[in-house]
Amino acid sequence: MTGHIHYQETGAADRRIAHLILHHEGKFNAMSREMWRALRQRFESIARDDGLRCVVVRGAQGHFCAGGDISEYPSFRFDPVALRAFHEDEVWGALHAMLQCDVPLVAHIEGNCMGAGLEIASCCDIRLAGQSARFGAPIARLGFPMAPKEAALVTGAVGHTTAKAMLLSAAVFDAPHMLARDFLTYVLPEPGLEGEVDALAQRIASLAPAAARMNKRTLRSMNMPLPPVDSVECAMNFESDHAVDTYAYAGSFEHREGIAAFLEKRPPSF
């Protein structure tokens, strides 16, 4: 199983709400390459749908998303060209499609929200989490950095201090911490979380849809939720200026050792 993106719609014909569910059984909804491609296609389709008023993004089976599907990594990550295509086309293609979507996006976060999950949540406009949700990007344990555009996105959403702790020390934070850092809008007990998310989606769907879309375009033009400086543009410039170097780590010892150690269920030896 490579996982899939489940999509369904609810609500009256003139107040439609979409539910997009990340589903990868047995892997805490880790994102496979197929899921990244499906996420991009789905949001490109949503962007063309003038009738939708809200999209709720969540994971299946009590977790949001635990990151990337590391079992796939040995098949492509050690080649710089394939690694670049993965991050620039598949991952950023999906995240960019979410960021360009004018429909309000609500993240319903439970359990693990790590790495790829944190990136996906960062693309949402309003984020609600259960009290036991956990957030991080502990890829330092896997021997590779976060791609520049993805790092800019996450930093804009969680703040520089939290992003540095996540990326440099593999720190994992709880929901109250992320609420205090202004990443989350609400933190709620798990038993009432789904009801609150549904009520919020219904409230958004009852409001003026054209105004909501114009507000999103205005906020996007102001680089929100990105930092005041356009970090994504800076990341793009960095990528252009360092075209040879950005993914040159693909075949490095640390990269290979980190992924091998994870798959072999042992501590890495850096």
Determine the N-to-C terminus distance.
31 Å
When the domains are counted, the total is 1
Number of strands: 9
Strand content: 15-25%
Measured as a percent range, the helix fraction is 40-55%
CATH superfamily: 2-enoyl-CoA Hydratase, Chain A, domain 1
Q: Give the helices and strands as they follow along the chain.
A: EEHEHEEHEEHHEHEHHHH
Q: What is the CATH class? A: Alpha Beta
Mean pLDDT: 93
Number of helices: 10
Please give the radius of gyration in angstroms: 18 Å
Which shape, going by the Cα principal axes? globular
| CATH-defined fold name | 2-enoyl-CoA Hydratase, Chain A, domain 1
CATH architecture: Alpha-Beta Complex
Unreliable spans are 225-230
Keywords: Lyase
Family: Belongs to the enoyl-CoA hydratase/isomerase family.
Pfam families: ECH_1
GO molecular function, one term: lyase activity
Give your account of this protein's structure.
- The chain is an alpha/beta fold and 270 residues long.
- It has a single domain (4-190, 208-263), classed as 2-enoyl-CoA Hydratase, Chain A, domain 1, CATH 3.90.226.10.
- It is built from ten helices and nine strands.
- It has a six-stranded mixed beta sheet, sandwiched between helices. The protein has a three-stranded mixed beta sheet with strand order 5-7-8.
